[in-house]
Amino acid sequence: MAASTFFIPPVNKIGMGCMTESVELIRNYGYRQALIVTDRVLNEIGVVGKVQALLADAGIKSAIYDGTNPNPTTINVEDGLKILRQHNCDCVISLGGGSPHDCAKGIALVATNGGDIRDYEGVDRSAKPQLPLIAINTTAGTASEMTRFCIITDVERHIKMAIVDKHVTPILSINDSVLMAGMPKGLTAATGMDALTHAIEAYVSTAANPITDACALKAVTMISRNLRRAVEEGHDVEARENMAYAQFLAGMAFNNASLGYVHAMAHQLGGFYDLPHGVCNAVLLPHVQRFNTQVAAARLKDIAVAMGVDVANLSDGQGADACIQAISELARDVNIPAGLSSLKVKEEDLPTLATNALKDACGFTNPIQASHEEIVAIFKAAM
């Protein structure tokens, strides 16, 4: 086994109501002027105002950038940077799901390193730590509040750039399930399936290790037991809190074992058609794992066990089939679209999408490397 490195924010607060006590931590860091990076919806429904009030009580001023797109763009990063510089901000606070977190990482990284966010595409391209980032999470899915991954859409090339950099790891992550209670069903389902994808891809990754394996399997179990409930009963606090822990565990797994072709391919769909990331992952997940069965059947059988499937009398191949079936059933139960054609993906675009998917850093740790034809075939199977 190759040597492993484990990345995680130094401090992570999880649990119902932990936002209030986290403000004291932020104050103790000594920051006085924050840029809050969020989206319009969270601003309009008053979540941003509540956080601003808590910060103000602790003597911390804040400016707001609420222009983050669902797939954050190079333009969003530039716009946020302008506000950060106008107000001489000494820290960045991201508030929301993966979109504001990724946008905030882009802003904070360029704030200290200079240049353009495109300069940092790839792995560990920055020279200096970013401006301190505190990530307040409102969805149970992307785990971007605690990872070194930052995904930004380049509006000129219509691709999602994967920026994997130890310097974009937040200094503090906050997962308060109270902030997740109002999440709509569709978003709960998509972000929950994103978390499941993180756990499964990390478990079959070539960079998996005993720590990431433990995190991944526990995440799979918790998602299998709680996602349906979180989608159906949005105010079920136990299901919400369990999903907050599950997505964090899945984040710990993929932040260190990386991902695979589901993400490499989903990034292309998101960049090209501006589609929701979690939905793309959920549609692709069973088809990529069917391809991975050639080399990872025993590992997929373990995942079936974590999902509560009885595989005692099954071979590895049969266990992998049972895993793929369990994934598809969960996706169907939470109303994920059946295929890519219902998302208006066009068959003539698949060769281009496949070419770009093979360049995505997330695919490098897939358990088996694919040819261009094989990636096109997986896309076709997912149509």
Automatic annotation (TrEMBL):
Span of domain Fe-containing alcohol dehydrogenase-like C-terminal: 188-383
Xref: CDD domains: PDDH (cd08188)
PROSITE patterns linked to this entry: ADH_IRON_1, ADH_IRON_2
GO molecular function: alcohol dehydrogenase (NAD+) activity; metal ion binding
Stored Gene3D superfamilies: 3.40.50.1970, Dehydroquinate synthase-like - alpha domain (1.20.1090.10)
Pfam families the UniProt entry points to: ADH_Fe_C, Fe-ADH
Keyword Transferase recorded: no
Cofactor: Fe cation
Every Alcohol dehydrogenase iron-type/glycerol dehydrogenase GldA domain range: 14-176
InterPro entries per record: ADH_Fe/GldA, ADH_Fe_C, ADH_Fe_CS, Alcohol_dehydrogenase_Fe
Sorted UniProt keywords: NAD, Oxidoreductase
Superkingdom of origin organism: Bacteria
Cross-referenced NCBIfam families: PRK09860.1 (NF007363)
Protein family: Belongs to the iron-containing alcohol dehydrogenase family.
Protein name (database record): Aldehyde-alcohol dehydrogenase protein
Source organism per UniProt: Xenorhabdus beddingii
